[in-house]
Design brief:
The structure is a homodimer of 96-residue chains. Chain A has 96 residues and is an alpha+beta fold. Helix content of chain A is 32%, strand content 30%. In chain A, helix 1 packs antiparallel against helix 2. Strand 5 of chain A pairs antiparallel with strand 4 of chain B, so a sheet runs across the interface. Chains A, B: Its cofactor is Mg(2+).
Chain lengths: 96, 96
């Protein structure tokens, strides 16, 4: 299933900047960065729950914001992109 | 129908910073900012097409990125939020 993860991490102090790096890294390990703080993560439900749990532990709930948009399996028809930074289709053909 | 609009606008020059302000303003006129460059826009299809057209004219397709995620009408069950900056439900009860 495809989940869109977007976050706003407060970077006013060093701790915040460290949190931002960790949240970005955790997302990068499992998904595709489509914009600065927006990732598409295509995982089975069990694995996704572990990633979500990790992200929720990384943020400061008083200062940061974390949003999950569950796009389901038919996500291709739900997404449109215009402009730079086009993305690859994780389920598409891999041409070697 | 609810559409998530997220954008990355290149701000390396003054033109880019002006584009960013215009894109943000256009989104703000029609929807709710949920994160820095992420908006939830809940409109009928015709009105949304005009907003989309306007946003596409505002960005520089060589430098900026604009993404639309169509969440449909049952969008409430597709969205989870944790942390700061909670949002209001545009379809929820308005208590005066």
């Amino acid at each position: 299933m495809m989940v869109l993860v977007s976050y706003d991490v407060s970077t006013v102090d060093q701790k915040g900047r460290a949190r931002l790096r960790k949240v970005a890294k955790a997302c990068q390990n499992y998904g595709q960065r489509v914009q600065n703080s927006v990732f598409e993560i295509d995982l089975d439900y069990g694995t996704f729950c572990r990633v979500k749990e990790k992200l929720m532990q990384l943020i400061d709930v008083q200062k940061d914001s974390l949003r999950f948009y569950y796009l389901g399996n038919n996500w291709h028809r739900r997404v449109e992109h215009f402009g730079a930074k086009d993305t690859y289709d994780p389920e598409g053909a891999l041409i070697l």
